Amino acid sequence: MQIFWIGLLGVAAAQLDSVPQGFDPNHWAWVSNTDPLLAVIPGTFNRSVYEAPSAANVSDQRVVSINDQINQTSFVAYDERFFDIIGPDAVVEQLQALAFQVHEAPCYIPETNSLFFVEWGPPGGGEKGRHDSQYLLDLTTNNLTLIKTNPPSWNVHGCVYRSGQLHVVTDGGPEETGYLATIDPQTWKRTTLLNNFYERPFISFNDLEIDDDGNYYLTDSYSGWGRTLHPYGVPTPPTVYFVNGTTLRLKELAVLPVGGNANGVSLSPDGSTLYLADTGATGAVATNKTAARNPQGGRDIYAWDFAVSKTTGERLPLLTSQKLLSRAIQYFYDGIRVSESGLIFGAGGEVVEVIDPESGWTLGSIRFGGGGNDPVNVVLGEHELWVVGKGGVWHVKDVKETLRRY
């Protein structure tokens, strides 16, 4: 278990805003434009949209020192509220150091204090990066084991735990299309609920959310199709689907334009707003191969409100008032989850960013050591969160604010 507490360069500490009393400057940085050196950078500077701000190529040595300081912290605040959300006792620790391979679909299972997650896509796995097994991490012992469901589940991509069951979506595999299913974590029996849109295959499911009535919100993306994880169908545009949890009747909620890709999805605590991560910047396209990254593609979180019936006052499976809530400061958001208070946690790049749901301001970032570590998805606990991605599994513990909604 590796804890990311690293000493800072004393020469740089005075060049950033001072963190509040009680917050350790060895773990925290406060970045704001009230310092003229950050609002107007002297000399030359440049970075791509895929790189962290602190990875920028800058000529001014004072800014280099600031970036060195930021690169050694676990928490970067852009707004004073971030200190109150995370609190002074939070720690980032790496539970498992795994291959620099995408890890996805984390689900916390409270009955066994364990974390379900998967290794996804190429280059790992069997032929063409296909995976028919999953990981189970015992959070008491930190023991990691491989499991298989019955029948085996190929290329699980998203997971939500609810009422004793794992609810998962998959990309599909060599002999099956993408589907929505439940998995019993006691027996590992898989029950497939839905695998077609009126006899048409889905592209490849990416993630899902469940509302308080048990209805599903599924993102169908180019990601699995673009990596040839299954051979089925001519893909439709990336789409968000609504599935009635009782009847399994389904319909399209939103269709993304060219250059977009439907990825992480989550709901506000009252269920009135749907959030979607658009990751078109990955470059995955509808040609059954992975294209070069597209920096002009989507790196956004969109927010939609639900339409309300004029006669009954009930929420309808229709979205209105699309808003661009946030565009990632670095890279793009893959998995997103919403906390009890409505904060949005977006994983991508070397960070999980915390976003205000009303203004769209990025309040701060939780860092995971850099060096190629790439958070991909997140699951929220009571005062903690777990993150999976390239490089392994991380735990952020002793967070001040209550996070888990269920």
Automatic annotation (TrEMBL):
Entry coiled-coil feature ranges: none
As given in the record, the signal peptide range reads 1-18
- Where does the record place the SMP-30/Gluconolactonase/LRE-like region domain? 104-381
Superkingdom field? Eukaryota
Q: Which UniProt keywords apply?
A: Signal
Q: What is this protein called?
A: SMP-30/Gluconolactonase/LRE-like region domain-containing protein
